[in-house]
């Protein structure tokens, strides 16, 4: 069994600014700081933000789904502005999934506008409960990023 979920959100910043956040460790640091309702902590296990970097995401107790998991940056394409991460330990793998991948794609829309397309791809054994997969947490992360980027832009514009 396999599936895919997608979400898109327009950001009112240039694609290059959005990519500075999503293409680096910045998004992990941001959600670790600004989303205590979802993440208890986000830790760098290995790496410097490039391909091969591993993060450990520990969720706030009481959140449905896995308590924690490790994800690995498997693709970072600075030209196309695509970043992919896969769960490599724990989390969805413990629930019968054989693949759980998240992709962020920053699409240039205009000079001061871009779209962040978030995709979850998964493969699971037949006995796995696919209803555990939801795009909502990813949509919330992107909304927090949009708010953060908007605040930064407003602060720059005010100077």
TrEMBL record:
Domain Bet v I/Major latex protein: 1-130
Pfam family, one: Bet_v_1
GO cellular component: cytoplasm; nucleus
Entry keywords, A to Z: Alkaloid metabolism
Record bears the keyword Plastid: no
GO molecular function: abscisic acid binding; protein phosphatase inhibitor activity; signaling receptor activity
Annotated signal sequence range: none
GO biological process: abscisic acid-activated signaling pathway; alkaloid metabolic process; defense response
PANTHER family (alphabetical): BET V I_MAJOR LATEX PROTEIN DOMAIN-CONTAINING PROTEIN, OS08G0374000 PROTEIN-RELATED
Family: Belongs to the BetVI family.
Protein name, as recorded: Bet v I/Major latex protein domain-containing protein
Annotated organism of origin: Pisum sativum (Garden pea)
